[in-house]
Automatic annotation (TrEMBL):
Stated name of the protein: Oxidoreductase
Domain FAD-binding PCMH-type: 33-207
Gene source species: Streptomyces paromomycinus
Signal sequence range: none
Lineage, opening ranks: Bacteria, Bacillati, Actinomycetota, Actinomycetes, Kitasatosporales
A GO molecular-function descriptor: oxidoreductase activity
A matching Pfam family: FAD_binding_5
Length: 327
């Protein structure tokens, strides 16, 4: 079931309706307006000022770190009519505690989220931020940009899906509304004209969280697959999200329910290796299923070698992620 990893983290906020979901790094489709020469740059000092600037200039594109936006501009794929810079809005560059949740500013950089104090707060999100490419990308890329551009390989996305985080969206006239991150990623709810993601509300579980990813090369790179896993002892639940294998992170709900039912929540929370392996296989089969049987009674099709390799990768990541969370 769809609910909601990558070198270039995204730092642009898309406020117009998407023409299509990006399959790469979010370079195209940032605005519905035709490319044209940049005409103006606005630098608001508050979230409401930024919303007002977008309302006054609907063709403008909001920009924070610009890691993907500038790549699109430099390659000629995008010529925004104007820019609304978000770098001076201090209120969205930190975090605060609120009713058992952390309210994270959308302007938080990935580098800041990778530091030890943040890792003590939300370890899974910190691990994803540290994995999101080289230092120059992490220093510029922001949490909000990673979410709104919604590149399939965005490292923070499966963690946010597993945490069941919500977005606090700022709109004209000081309006605020909340939507689940998974709804935005799946296209069930979109940002309206003039709206910006201001904050991300994440429940503080005070429980083990893991994030693992596989890349096609040594060192920081775009994920070929990633897995985020969160234990929720209060609800005796396991939440898992798989990234990079589809247009949005996938939640294998039946696998979550099965493994939660066999964990001894009142004891040591240990599982035998066979159970860990079965969970990994369950997750992988749910996210990369076999082809449907043919209706004409011919020989069933099999997955191509690349898909089989990806399934084995997801199974290994899910198995290791659960093992680390339970250790």
């Amino acid at each position: 079931m769809c609910q909601s990893c990558h070198v270039r983290t995204v730092s642009t906020y898309r406020t117009a309706e998407r023409n299509s979901r990006d399959t790469g790094e979010g370079a195209a489709g940032l605005t519905t307006h035709a490319p044209q020469a940049s005409q103006s740059v606005t630098l608001p000092a508050s979230l409401d000022e930024a919303v007002a600037a977008l309302a006054a200039m609907p063709a403008a594109v909001p920009v924070a770190g610009g890691t993907d936006l500038m790549a699109a501009v430099n390659s000629g794929l995008l010529r925004p009519a104007g820019l609304v810079g978000l770098g001076r809005i201090s209120e969205i560059r930190g975090w605060q505690y609120q009713d058992g949740h952390a309210l994270l500013g959308a302007g938080l950089t990935l580098a800041r989220m990778g530091r030890p104090d943040f890792a003590a707060l939300i370890p899974g999100l910190a691990a994803a931020a540290r994995a999101a490419g080289p230092p120059q990308v992490r220093n510029a890329g922001t949490l909000g940009g990673n979410i709104v551009t919604s590149a399939p390989t965005g490292d923070t996305l499966p963690v946010l899906a597993a945490l069941e985080a919500n977005l606090v969206v700022a709109g004209p006239g000081g309006a605020r509304r909340e939507i689940p991150v998974s709804h935005l990623l799946a296209g069930r709810e979109m940002l309206r004209p003039g709206e910006l993601v201001g904050y991300v509300r994440v429940p503080l579980l005070h429980a083990p969280q893991t994030f693992l990813k596989a890349t096609g090369r040594t060192g920081p790179g775009r994920a070929t697959a990633s897995v985020a896993l969160v234990l929720d002892p209060a609800r005796r639940g396991v939440r898992c999200a798989v990234g990079a294998v589809a247009a949005m992170p996938l939640r294998p709900l039946e696998a979550e329910q099965w493994v939660a039912s066999i964990i001894d929540w009142d004891g040591e929370r240990k599982l035998v290796p066979e159970a860990l392996a079965a969970f990994g296989d369950y997750v992988a089969a749910a996210c990369i299923p076999d082809p449907p049987p043919p209706q004409d009674g011919t020989e069933p099709q099999t997955l191509p070698p690349a898909a089989l390799h990806l399934r084995r990768t997801v199974a290994a990541l899910a198995r290791r992620a659960l093992g680390r969370a339970l250790s």
